[in-house]
């Protein structure tokens, strides 16, 4: 469905290159009011359309299709090959885009949206893999924060890196190890027949710059969802399905639930490794893993735009105990529940503004 939407506006590649350069200049000076920032607000510049909107990003086609189908007063814009749909969804002016899978795609497309439209708030809507074994397929998670723990310093062994002198000091390289309570987080251990072996993979903080921390910038391990949007999500009572609409005979045994809170993680690897999943849960208490939201969250922070992310679980990432990953993934259960929560949130958000 998504690929069949007609194109109403096209920007030539050469023109877009010039515009993108201008967008970087605009973005570096522009400030948008949010609950997380009290910095002076500069004039908003939009390269395509300047009506205030909620920006919605999805990574997988089926996720975006459900939302676009229900959007009213639709108009499509093609920008550097990416199709953006503007309109009204459950009483809110929105712009929706399909990013494609991966942290790089999510980063590029989210920033492209920020440059070309007046996005006041950001929302990620999609499916993901479960990390917390207590959660179930079909549950919808709304983490309070997102991190990218696969951004690593890969040491030769399990000892703390010391390229700049002291153990754990990597500052001379322009990077910083992730820490907790003042101590670097432990590296990932690989299970072997002879016991755990250190991988030398130590988590790093990400460097990020915006108008509030320039020119020195800052290192951050996680990015926090907007408290106001989270508070609204906690009060939602959406109807969540047990059976996939594409195959009603395929049902989960446990009624899916909406779970707000905890941590989400993202990375460039499609995670199908139970050992690494356990590492993420044990060390970060992560609830869910995907390949986009951490990058999306960093773009939101860099632009000082409040965000929230809804992720429905399609499987337990790398779980050998779940044999029907492909069947449930294709059943439509996860994206249906995720879309139901997203739509319920937008409807509640619209009522709140009246």
Automatic annotation (TrEMBL):
Which keywords does this Swiss-Prot/TrEMBL entry list?
Signal
**Any GO molecular function:** catalytic activity
Q: Where is the Nucleoside phosphorylase domain?
A: 53-328
InterPro entries the record matches: Nucleoside_phosphorylase_d, Nucleoside_phosphorylase_sf
Q: Name one Pfam family in it.
A: PNP_UDP_1
Q: Which residues form the signal peptide?
A: 1-38
One of its GO biological process terms is: nucleoside metabolic process
Q: Which PANTHER family match?
A: PHOSPHORYLASE SUPERFAMILY PROTEIN, PURINE NUCLEOSIDE PHOSPHORYLASE
What is the designated name of this protein? Answer: Phosphorylase superfamily protein
């Amino acid at each position: 469905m998504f690929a069949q939407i007609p194109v109403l506006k096209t920007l030539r590649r050469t023109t877009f290159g010039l515009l993108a350069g201008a967008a970087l200049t605009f973005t570096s000076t522009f400030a948008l009011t949010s609950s997380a920032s009290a910095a002076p607000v500069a004039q908003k510049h939009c390269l395509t359309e300047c009506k205030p909107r909620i920006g919605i990003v999805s990574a997988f086609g089926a996720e975006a299709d459900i939302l676009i189908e229900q959007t009213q007063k639709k108009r499509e814009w093609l920008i550097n090959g990416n199709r953006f749909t503007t309109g009204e969804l459950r009483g809110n002016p929105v712009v929706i885009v399909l990013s494609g899978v991966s942290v790089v795609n999510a980063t590029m497309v989210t920033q492209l949206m920020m440059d070309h439209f007046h996005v006041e708030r950001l929302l990620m809507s999609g499916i993901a893999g479960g990390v917390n074994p207590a959660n179930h397929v079909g549950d919808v998670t709304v983490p309070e924060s997102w991190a990218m723990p696969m951004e690593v310093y890969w040491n030769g062994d399990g000892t703390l890196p010391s390229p700049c002198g002291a153990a754990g000091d990597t500052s001379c390289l322009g990077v910083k190890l992730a820490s907790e309570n003042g101590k670097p987080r432990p590296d990932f251990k690989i299970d072997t027949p002879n016991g755990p072996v250190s991988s030398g993979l130590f988590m790093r903080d990400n460097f990020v710059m915006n108008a509030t921390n320039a020119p020195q910038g800052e290192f951050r391990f996680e990015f926090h969802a907007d408290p106001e949007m989270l508070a609204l999500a906690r009060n939602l009572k959406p109807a969540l399905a047990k059976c996939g609409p594409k195959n009603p005979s395929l049902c989960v045994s446990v009624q899916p639930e909406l779970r707000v809170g905890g941590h989400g993680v993202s990375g460039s690897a499609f995670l199908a490794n139970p050992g690494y999943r356990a590492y993420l849960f044990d060390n970060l208490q992560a609830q869910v893993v995907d390949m986009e939201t951490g990058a999306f969250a960093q773009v939101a922070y860099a632009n000082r735009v409040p965000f929230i992310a809804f992720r429905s679980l399609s499987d337990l990432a790398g779980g050998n105990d779940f044999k029907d990953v492909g069947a449930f993934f294709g059943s439509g259960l996860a994206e249906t529940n995720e879309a139901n929560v997203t739509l319920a949130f937008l409807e509640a958000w619209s009522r709140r503004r009246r």
